[in-house]
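The material for today's practical consists of a large collection of protein records. There is nothing in a record beyond a sequence line and a structure line. As an example, a complete record with its sequence and its structure tokens follows:
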Amino acid sequence: MKKIALFDIDKTLIPYDSFFKWIFVILKKKKSRLLKIPQLILLGITAIGSPEKLTCYKEKWLSLADGFSEEEIAEFSEKLVNECIIPDLKPGVENAIKQYKDSGYTIIFATASFEIYFRYLAQYFDVDYFFGTKVRLVGEKWKIIGQNCKGQEKIRRILEEIPEREIDKSSSVGFSDSMSDYPFSSLVKNFYLVDRKHWKTVKTFIQ
């Protein structure tokens, strides 16, 4: 049986949404694509409340990366994580993850952000499992593969790799800044809702 420590990333381990920092790097390299931003913001209104529309909406943002090769995306994504995101980890996060790892927990990161850049944070922490929204380069266009990794989709992805019968729910824990991750509680006894700016618990849900 595995004791799991399950973590969201954006606003949980770091105090902001990393997606926009990643997009900002793209826009710095391709300034002409700034012209697309107003339209993308307006499209976001229609995506609210629909997982399918949200996936399509994120793919519209992802299209800003069209024309970049896998090597280029990997290079600036790794640099972003190493030079910006890791230094911005909430104080206490690294120690907490280390303590769970040293106590024999299986460490899982699950995020709605793109795997293509957060894989470097997963590597930094040497986590056991990492799940994010998958993307792939098709020709010169970047496409989302499958569904946006949010809410119940995170649980589905985890259970593809770890059968529920192998999880020691009574000893397992989950952390997120958002109730959209309340489905974590189907796998863990203690679900901790954390402050979006600081590594501290604001509410605990015990199953």
Q: What stands out?
A: The helical segments are 18-29, 37-47, 51-62, 70-85, 93-102, 115-125, 152-161. DSSP finds seven helices and seven strands in the chain. The beta strands are 4-7, 106-114, 129-138, 141-145, 173-176, 190-194, 201-206.
